[in-house]
Design brief:
The complex is a heterodimer of chains A (260) and B (388).
Chain A lengths: L1 E6 L1 E3 L21 E3 L1 H16 L3 E7 L4 H11 L3 E5 L9 H15 L3 E5 L10 H9 L3 E11 L2 E7 L5 E7 L2 E5 L11 H7 L4 E4 L11 H4 L23 H14 L4
Parallel strand pairs in A: 1-4, 1-6, 4-5, 5-11, 6-10, 7-10
Antiparallel strand pairs in A: 2-3, 7-8, 8-9
Helix pairs in contact in A: 2-5, 3-4
Chain B lengths: L6 H14 L4 H10 L4 H9 L18 H29 L2 H6 L2 H13 L4 E4 L15 E5 L2 E9 L9 E7 L13 E7 L5 E5 L11 E11 L3 E2 L5 H37 L1 E2 L2 E2 L4 H29 L6 H24 L11 H11 L6 H12 L7
Parallel strand pairs in B: 1-4
Antiparallel strand pairs in B: 2-3, 3-7, 4-5, 5-8, 6-7, 9-10
Classes of the chains: A alpha/beta (260), B alpha+beta (388).
């Protein structure tokens, strides 16, 4: 069995984010990056399948040199191989450009299962997984919170609105986009990190994958016009006094505003 | 000269930080307050195989060097646990250096694998209150008694003795006056920390309270020839393979603590607005933090150089002591400036910097005082006459 896990490297959750000079993205210099948290659950799920029997886990990611560290982390956690699309031409790709690139890798690898995070911590679009599934012609399920594998099928539980759970049978090969909390993600062991150095890490370009026209700002159909910090509103009022006084004052204001 | 990032060291730092990051300031603050050993943290690192970082692969470790261990300790100390986080792990690294380099095959086979997995805790038993840094004057003795030795004496500042099953114990086996050199006649034993013969008393102290420091009162502790590390009477030479790595690793840790202090101070200085501007806009706040940043940069290079030199066979202590002096100063100054940046709130436990400050103070005293490390440089690097 072969499992392809698609990872995105995103700014570290503790990183201070500033908007860049032309207001189209954040300043990336000097901040730390990490694997998108949703993708870590996808990777863990793949590694658990590997631990349970015969499976090869291939991780793939798109981005500049820094992405090597994310892939090394994944290899250190137990993945067998990595594919890194390291191509300046990919800078500014929209979700479809990313999906076409990942789909091209999937077509080369012919995995039995593709696992991805439901969304990215930075973009939050949730667009790429279904696109990849469509492009490679696989059935897919999103917001996966539990899986149960059987021959030719994976029964998944999907998290719906209002706490409802939907149970779906997805025939394999398929793509699953997993929700956070699916499992307890492992850490790379020191021996795993050392072993990762010897594992294959293939570097490719968009041209290698035949998607040069689809990537970058040139290939993007969605363009980021502007990124900005939410403006701070004026007129915040700090209530003072004892707890009872503050509660009473707050209740009066809520009533004044007609919210109750 | 190649300063490009080393992917192996970067991976160690990244993954160690990732794991240490699960144990936040609140965790360490609580351990500090309760004087509790950080078992959850220690067990997480043991499970990941990190404790065996310098233990040879043959004995269940990973077989890396001081530079790698320093990178790990620098990473964990920069995540809020400060010296406590580093000290919970580091004795298993430099403490077993003498066994790795000078121990018998039997000692290595028996004790290195459980050290690598984290099951075996070893304390370092060298310092005595009557001898201080003048190790040749230690009063603990091991006297031959048939086919064994009997140890009597007292040790102080034994880290983790509350948890340790073994102690790397230095004892005099030949009276000082009968030796050609004062440092001859000392023997290193990997002894059982047997509470029938050793009374272990914790020392209440200023900081690093998650990891205990102790006094050992040793009375009639039996040890055997099999417990001897290296040769009888030549223990001091074996110790060098614990002492220099200890200074280097503590240097790496000090830089990590200093980095953390500057990081939280910078964040605060950017966010805290007084007189309609972030306080970090004032040079009185900004310059000390920037200055400390450069001091930490310099100390960072120095410990890495010392580690690289040691790993490449340099047993002279010049670089290790230089790193220790500069990193301890850079660390404490950084923590002090961080505390000052917070103003009155810096004195409050909830802001955490007072804890960093208390822990940072240790690096100026241990594993050797700044003054004695400076004496080493004066005597052994500059060739000046010994001053004491």
């Amino acid at each position: 069995m072969k499992i392809l896990v698609c990872l995105k490297q995103v700014p570290h959750q503790d990183a201070r984010l500033d908007v860049n000079g032309d207001g189209t993205w954040i300043k990336e210099d000097g901040i730390k990056f990490e694997i998108n948290s949703y993708d870590t659950y996808a990777l863990e799920e793949a590694l658990r399948i590997k631990d349970a029997g015969e499976a090869e886990v291939v991780v793939a990611s798109i981005g500049p040199d820094r992405v090597t560290q994310a892939l090394r982390t994944a290899l250190g956690m137990g993945a067998d191989r990595a594919v890194h699309v390291n191509d300046a031409a990919c800078q500014g790709s929209d979700a479809l450009g990313i999906a076409k690139t990942l789909a091209a890798i999937a077509k080369e690898e012919s995995p039995d299962l593709i696992l991805m995070g439901l969304m990215s911590d930075d973009g939050n679009a949730s667009a790429v997984p279904p696109m990849v599934a469509e492009l490679v012609g696989m059935p897919s399920a999103t917001a996966v919170v539990a899986t149960e594998r059987s021959e030719g099928n994976i029964r998944v539980e999907r998290e719906l609105e209002g706490g409802a759970v939907e149970v779906v049978d997805v025939p394999t090969p398929c793509l699953l986009a997993v929700q956070s909390g699916l499992n307890q993600v492992r850490y790379a062991s020191l021996k795993g990190i050392m072993a990762a150095k010897k594992k294959p890490l293939d570097v490719k370009t968009a041209a290698d994958l035949g998607v040069a026209d689809a990537v970058g700002t040139a290939g993007a159909k969605v363009k980021i016009e502007k990124i900005y910090q939410p403006l701070r509103g004026e007129g915040a009022e700090i209530l003072s006094g004892s707890t009872d006084e503050i509660v009473s004052s707050l209740m009066n204001k809520i009533k004044e505003l007609g919210l109750l | 000269m190649d300063f490009s990032p080393d992917s192996e060291l970067e991976s160690i730092a990244t993954e160690a930080r990732q794991l240490a990051g699960q144990f936040d300031d609140q965790y360490w603050s609580e351990k500090d307050r309760a004087h509790e050993f950080p078992w959850e943290y220690y067990n997480a690192f043991a499970a990941g195989g990190w404790i065996g970082i310098i233990i040879p692969e043959k004995y269940g470790g990973v077989g890396l060097g001081t530079l790698h261990a320093g990178t790990l300790l620098n990473a964990v100390s920069s995540c809020g646990g400060a010296m406590s986080a580093a000290s919970a792990l580091h004795i298993s690294m430099f403490g077993m250096g003498p066994v790795i380099h000078h121990g018998s095959e039997r000692l290595k086979e028996q004790y290195l694998p459980p050290t690598a997995t984290g099951e075996l805790h070893v304390s370092f038993g060298v310092t005595e209150d009557d001898a201080g840094t003048d190790t040749s004057r230690i009063r603990t003795t091991a006297v031959r008694d048939g086919n064994r030795w009997i140890v009597n004496g007292k040790k102080i500042w034994n880290t983790k003795a509350q948890q340790a099953q073994k102690v790397l114990l230095l004892a005099r086996t030949t009276p000082r006056e009968e030796c050609a050199k004062p440092t001859d006649g000392l023997t290193l034993f990997l002894a059982d920390l047997d509470k029938r013969y050793v009374d272990i008393r914790e020392i209440p102290k200023l900081g690093r309270n998650a990891v205990n420091s102790n006094e050992l009162f040793i009375e009639g502790l039996p040890v055997t020839d099999d417990d001897v590390v290296g040769d009888v009477g030549r223990g001091f030479r074996c110790l060098i393979d614990g002492i220099n790595p200890e200074r280097i690793m503590v240097s790496a840790e000090a830089v990590g603590v200093g980095r953390r202090a500057i990081e939280v101070a910078v964040r605060y200085a950017r966010e805290r607005v007084v007189f309609n501007r972030p306080i970090g806009q004032n040079q009185a706040i900004a310059h000390p933090l920037a200055d400390s940043h450069t001091e930490l940069d310099a100390a960072d290079l120095l410990w890495k150089y010392a580690a690289w030199a040691y790993d490449n066979g340099d047993r002279h202590g010049g670089a290790a002591n230089a790193a220790k002096i500069r990193s301890a100063e850079a660390c404490f100054t950084a923590c002090d400036r961080a505390l000052q940046t917070f103003g009155g709130m810096g004195y409050a436990v909830e802001m955490q910097v007072e804890r960093y400050w208390r822990e940072a103070r240790l690096a100026r005293l241990a594993p050797i005082s700044q003054e004695m490390a400076t004496n080493y440089i004066a005597e052994h690097v500059l060739g000046l006459p010994r001053s004491y």
